[in-house]
Amino acid sequence: MKKIGFLSFGHWTPSSQSQTRSAGDALLQSIDLAVAAEELGADGAYFRVHHFARQLASPFPLLAAAGARTSRIELGTAVIDMRYENPLYMAEDAGAADLIAGGRLQLGISRGSPEQVIDGYRHFGYVPAEGQTDADMARGHAEVFLDLLGGEGFAQPNPRPMFPNPPGLLRLEPHSPGLRERIWWGAATTPTAQWTGKTGMNLQSSTLVMAESDKPFHIQQAEQIAAFRAAWAEAGHTRTPRVSVSRSIFPLITDMDRAYFGGDARSQDHFGYIEPGKQAVFGRSYAAEPDQLVKELAEDEAIKAADTLLLTVPNQLGVAYNAHVIEAVLKHVAPALGWR
């Protein structure tokens, strides 16, 4: 059994070829797709966060709105770029959104990917300390955020407050119990996966990892998952960790499916550079008739190792079509693989 959700980047463009032509369209359609996915029996609605781009950017209003419109589905991110975040403000926003959703948030955070502008986090007021990298800064923000989610008081109360205070040091409010255990880190390397396990966060792995060998993508990803679980066990955490992987999966059922994605049936892994000097291996897309998809997906070692599968959706094709893709996976692929 696996949890199956969708992952949307929330792209929008004013082109007449797009069903998502404005930021408002992207946000409102994201909520509608979360509602549709819940009705179809999916388990999660996850959203990417990119700054300075025609994509989803500010996650907490979206998560709160989707939480108010749904009742069961998990609501998450994959991922929030912690280089840009004030961890105190984020803890308040996350607590509020989680309470609105009834404790269903699954927040993926990370150092983030290359962005649309140079050092965009500097425009948000964050600069790595001397001797630090931007990745160090992101991890520092994350560690503060995780501590705050524990709910311990840390601020000295005013002796003459406007409103009465509870006894002791004060914490940020609203506090949502249990949210700390529902934080995930997006890792793309074995050392980062190990750090994630040691820190006690769940693991998210995308459709690319940094190339650490010449092995196929799914094998390298599965090795990182194994390293994460070993580090988790060595750290002595008592709960069972979760692991998600993302995949582009398109069952070819209708003529529209074949027109859109029939060409992806020949997709293969490929190696490339997402930043200078940093080679990554990009996972293939899966597009085929359902019976063939079942055979191909059964050989994906990283999917086998994960408990959660996030389906990347082409959101600019509209809510109805993306709901069709999700339903096709749930109905025609998942049962044959034992995911349902």
Automatic annotation (TrEMBL):
Source organism superkingdom = Bacteria
SUPFAM superfamilies, per the entry: Bacterial luciferase-like
Domain (Luciferase-like): residue spans on this chain: 9-249
- One cellular component term from this protein's GO annotations in UniProt: cytosol
Q: Which GO terms describe its molecular function?
A: monooxygenase activity; oxidoreductase activity, acting on paired donors, with incorporation or reduction of molecular oxygen
Q: Known Pfam families for this protein?
A: Bac_luciferase (PF00296)
Name-wise, this protein is Alkane 1-monooxygenase
This chain's source organism reads Devosia insulae DS-56
